[in-house]
Predict the structure.
Amino acid sequence: MPELLPDPVQYAVPAFVVLVLIEMLVAWRVDPTRYEPKDTLTSLLLGTGSTVAGALTGSAVVALSVWLYQFRLFDIGYVWWAWILVFFLDDLAYYVFHRLAHRVRYFWASHVIHHSSQHYNLSTALRQTWTGFFSLSFAFTLPLALLGFPVPMLLFASGVNLIYQFWIHTEAIDRMPRWFEAFFNTPSHHRVHHATNPRYLDKNYAGMLIIWDRMFGSFEAERADDRPRYGIIRNLGSFNLFWAAFHEWIGMAKDVATVPGWKNKLGYILAPPGWSHDGSRDTSDTIKERWREAGGENSAPVGQERPQAVPAE
Amino acid sequence: MDWLTLIGSLVAVFALAGIAWWLGVGTPPAIGSEEAARRHAAEAHSGFRPREAAVDADGRAALVLGEDREIVLLRPHGARIAARVFRGAPPCAVSDGELKIASGERMFGDVTLRLGEAEAARWAARLGELSDA
Ligand SMILES: [Zn+2]
Ligand SMILES: [Zn+2]
C-alpha cells in the first residue's frame, strides 16, 4: 500500500452539514418547497450509506490501482505539472463515466440513485450510490494509473472532484459570472443535468469543467422559459431508502429473468435505460423525439433567447 | 471510516431532517384544477395530449385521459407530484364516491380519488370502455 494523501472528502463533511443547514433556512424564507423532510432524510441516509459502501470496497480499488501502476507507461511522479494535468484528465474520465452512466442501463442502475430525488438542493448532492463498486465506476480512472499518475494523486483528484460537485446542487444561485459559466460546471448547468424536461435529458455530464460537454456536443443551456423539473422519468413515489438504492437493479434482474432470448437479455443490461425488447417503454431518445414532433423545440415565447448553438457531435 | 465518524454522521443526518420537519418546509402540493392536472400530465409524459381529467376533491390525486388510450395518473409525493403513464385503462374500483386506481406497483401504491358518487361511477365506466377497446 502506498502512503495515501489525506482524504479531502472527510474534511469537507462538516462544511457540507453547515451549508445544507444554511440553504435549508434560505429555502424556508424564499421557497419552502425546495426542501422536504423525508426527501432530505432519504438523501442524507443514502449519502451516509454510500460512504460505508465506499469504505468497504475502497481498499480493493486502491489495491487494483496500485497493481496496475506497476505496469505504468511513464514515470510521472509528483511533478508540479502532473498536479494540473491530473485534474483535467480525472475530470475527463469522470465525463466519460458519467455519460455512460446515463446511456448504459448497467451503469445507470447504480447512478440513478443520485437522480432519484424530485428536489434539487445541497442534500441531493449527498444522495450517492451504494453500488458504485458493483457497477465498476472505479474502472474509469484506472487508465490514469496505467499512464503513470501516482495512485494517491488520483484518489486526491477524484476526492476534490466530488467535493466540487457539492455546491452546484442548489437553486439558490442563479448564474455565476459569464467566464465562470463558460469553463466550469455551475448550479445552472447541473440543474439542466438533473431535469427531466425533454430538452434537458442526457445533457451536461460535466464534473468540474463544462468544457467537455461543449466539446462533445452534450451541452444544453438552462432557459428561463423551460424551468427544470427534477427527478427521473418514472419517479419513485416512495421515500424508502432501500427501494431508492436498489430499484433499478431489481427491475433489471426481473427483465433479464423474464424476457426470452440472449439478445433481449443483453439489451436489458447494456442498452440505454428504458429500452425494451417490444418498444413498450420510453427511453430519453423516444421522449425527445415525441417532444420534437410536438414542436417543443420551437415553443419559446417570442422575444425569448434562442438556445445557444452547440458544436456538432 | 470508524464508528465514531459513522455515528456522528447519523446524528447530523437526523438533526438536519428534524430541522426541516420543524421548519415545516415541503408541504404537499394540491392539484387545484382540471387545467393544472392536464398541465402536470403533459409535463410528466412527453407528447401527451390530454382530453379530460378527474381531480380529487382535495386535489390529492388526478387521472388524466389523453388521446391514443393514454392515461396519466398523478398524486403528490412529498412536496412534488409523481406520475404513472398507462396505455389502456388501469384496474379500478368504486366505493362511497371514491375511485380507486391500482398502479400495479407495490412501491407506488394505489391512488384514491374522491369524486362523488356520480362522477366516480362515470369515470369507472369510462375506464371500463377503454379496457374493453
Ligand atoms: Zn447524472
Ligand atoms: Zn448531481
